[in-house]
Structure formats: C-alpha cells, structure tokens
Amino acid sequence: KSLSRSSVRSRMSLKPPKAYNSLQKGALIWDPKPLQVKNIFEALKKGLNEYLEAHQAELDFLSGRHKDTKRNSRLAFYYDLDKQIRSVERYIRKLEFHISKVEELYEAYCIQCRLRDGATNMKQAFSLSPSTKASRESLLELYKNVQECTEDMCFIEGALEVHLGEFHVKMKGLVGFARLCPGDQYEVFVRLGRQKWRLKGKIETDDSQTWDEEEKIFIPNLHEKFEIKVTELRGLATILVGVVTCDSTNFFSTKPQAIIVDITELGTIKLRLEVLW
C-alpha cells in the first residue's frame, strides 16, 4: 500500500496549478466519483485519438507531396513543405505524450480506487466481528487507509482535469417560432462549476437576434455539468423561461458540436450553442 502511494506521488511530483490547490493532500472538497471519471476519461481518450488520426493523415498527405516535390526540384516549395511536416510531427509527439500522461493518471486512479474498495470491504467485515483490541486497531488502520486512498483519488482527479483542454462555446441564438417576437429581450446564463457566462439578447424587427457576447471559454470539469438558465426580460421584471443541464462528455471531439437544448418542457423555445474543444 505504501509503495503504491509513493509511486502515485512520484509520478505526479509537479505542483498542481493554483486552480487545483484545494485538491492537494489533506484538503478534500468532494468525494471521488469513479464512474464519472471513467466516462470523462473514455471520452477524452477518444477525442485525443481523433486528433491524432487527423494529424497522422495530414502528415501522410504532406509526406507524399514532399516526395513528389523533391523529384521535381522545386526547392522553395520543398523547404516550405519540409517545415510543415516538421511542425505536424512535433504536434503528433505532443499528442502522443498527452495521451500517455492521461492513461498513466487514470491507471493510478484505478489502482487507488481498487485499494479503497478493498479497505472499505475489510472495514465492514471487521465492524461485524466481535470487538477486541486487535479488531479496533485493525479498524483504525483500515479507516486511515480508506482516507488516504480517497485523498489520493481526489489529488489525481485534480491532476487529470489539467489535461482536459478548453471548451469554446459560441452563442447561436434562440429558436422559438411564434414564441419569439420582435422587441423581446432574453438573458442566458451558463454555468460550469464556478465558471459563469451571462449574456443578453434581443429579437430584432427582421427576426434576427443580437447578443452582447458571442463566445466564452470554459475549462472542463470532471464533476460538474453545464447548467443553462434562460429568462425573459420585461422592463424591470424577469420571467423564468426554463433551466436545463447538459453533460459535457460528448464535447470531446475534433469537430464543432452543435447543441440544441429544449429550454421549455414542451420545446417551444430552444437554445442553439456550438462547442469546439
């Protein structure tokens, strides 16, 4: 057990960024959620592999042109292609390192999860046995093991979040057919954990929409979902149109993801967003 934990600490010896200082050992702010971490890990790995495949295809294409250009002796174009190839190769190496780091973190996370489950099961078994000095000492030791594994899992979750990248969310407008009239004003509030985006929009006379902001960058979070609230502004009063939540696991993709969310229960007003990872 101690060797395993030492290995986890040595492989993550770099100090976490300030945003994750609260996840350092001894400062838990939530319980680990292995199932959610598993879903995010699988989505993240799939997205990274998509990027890797796309850049590998680009490298193959450039390499083919590189050979043809070399035979034709167009030196200027040849050297320009050579620079592009080297750039793509460097990016591919970065992606491969990124994937290996994510896999390493998740493997360490799974080890700590299994150790915690084992210690929890033993703790339950000891609690059902007759109380003796030896059993009480064993229970205390198992309790410490469970706590240490839990802290290590939270530490790894914080380290894994650093590798999730960014979500660029673009506002594409509201869809409401007869519900949207010229002059109507709306406020859209998007939250992801502690990150917030509040923007106001207006329906113009030609049915177009103007919004005071069009794009916001969010840092993905292992535990939080997107929360979206839409309110209609009528003078000094505000009328709640609807509140929805949206999971982020589908956003880890090379292509922009178009999202159409039903704001009202009957779907009479929808919100259109675009997410680029």
UniProtKB/TrEMBL annotation:
PANTHER family attached to this UniProt entry: PROTEIN KINASE PKN/PRK1, EFFECTOR, RIPOR FAMILY MEMBER 3
Residue span, FAM65 N-terminal domain: 2-277
Annotated Pfam families: PL48 (PF15903)
InterPro entries: FAM65_N, RIPOR3
Family: Belongs to the RIPOR family.
Protein name, as recorded: RIPR3 protein
